[in-house]
């Protein structure tokens, strides 16, 4: 079976615009969480989020195209441009026929949907833009990328809540392995820091209310955690067959060696007890990569900073990795402690951070872990990044509806 490698990365996150900017911020343990600036939060229970700051869409696309896109698509276009440049990817007309694009999105153009609904009620239907529908549809991130680069392989959107972009990477891996494509542009995007988005998550008591300490609010595995922080942004990875990447002399960052996907079939928002089916997704990913649990060096946890979710994921990791985890030979961290929870973009951004960890031998920390929950007993790399040679890492993404994805990424040895 053909091996599949990562040759390019592009990130737009609350920690920086660009892969290196994000990576250096995360390694330094800097939080991207701030008081919300996108709208007036007076009266909101949660008034903090991880916003992307100083983003200028015109730096990444023609100005005439911006009006066609919601914020999530603009993020994706920027991340993809950076990933393609990072990969040094140049495609002939024939190669474009065998290049596809999967961009996972959880909620799509929420800000435009909200804005235009209000305008419709105030000013009537004649004021609705013809770009409105194409701008909010989830698959238009992938669609706009495909249009921009003339990609003619498969292009569609995986929507599975917070696992959306992890599914995109897993599905891209399958298309490449089956030999139907040679290159896949894959990742995820999200932009839901809007009045209705924050109000909706707050109504579920899902968000932290630590409004006076934004940078300390996202605290996975800490006893004082009180909910996640809504984030936004995009991540794009360039996946290629190893044969093609070697032939063109590409720099190979790592290999995507396996993945697994399951569903709890239990509850719309709560994980199944002991995260049993999440653990099964991890087992599937290990089997797909032909690895034993003790071969995994690091797990980028889903770790959202919710009271139930962090405990259940920790139990699942103990169940799967056993002594390897309990004896602290397995390192685990949650980069959401710094980026917030980027929802549909989270899986792709975290996979990209795993690729950087493998390439640089640095493991990002879990910040704000001041008082570890006694039920979370693993080594979560608290506060500071650490050095370690990484051969195999895992990235977990779980979502509402009980959807679970685990990705395994490995150092490439040709």
Based on the structure given, which CATH architecture of the largest domain is correct?
3-Layer(aba) Sandwich
User: How is the biggest beta sheet arranged?
Assistant: 11 strands, mixed
Rg value: 20 Å
pLDDT below 50 for ≥5 consecutive residues: which ranges?
Answer: none
Number of strands: 15
Proportion of residues in helical segments: 25-40%
Distance between the first and last residues' Cα: 14 Å
The string of secondary-structure elements, in order, is EEHEEHHHEHHHEHEHEHEHEHHEHHEEEE
CATH class of the largest domain: Alpha Beta
Fraction in beta strands? 15-25%
Please describe what this structure looks like:
- 35% of the residues lie in helices and 19% in strands.
- It has 15 helices and 15 strands.
- The chain has helices spanning 19-27, 63-66, 71-87, 93-96, 110-123, 132-136, 140-149, 164-177, 195-203, 242-247, 276-289, 307-321, 323-326, 336-339, 346-360; strands at 4-13, 16-17, 34-35, 48-49, 99-105, 155-156, 183-190, 233-241, 254-263, 298-300, 331-333, 362-363, 386-387, 392-399, 403-410.
- The strands form three sheets. Strands 1, 2, 5, 6, 7, 8, 9, 10, 11, 14 and 15 form an eleven-stranded mixed sheet that branches. A two-stranded antiparallel ribbon has the order 3-4.
- Strand 14 and strand 15 (403-410) form a beta hairpin.
- The radius of gyration is 20 Å and the shape is globular.
- The relative contact order is 0.19.
- The mean pLDDT is 97.
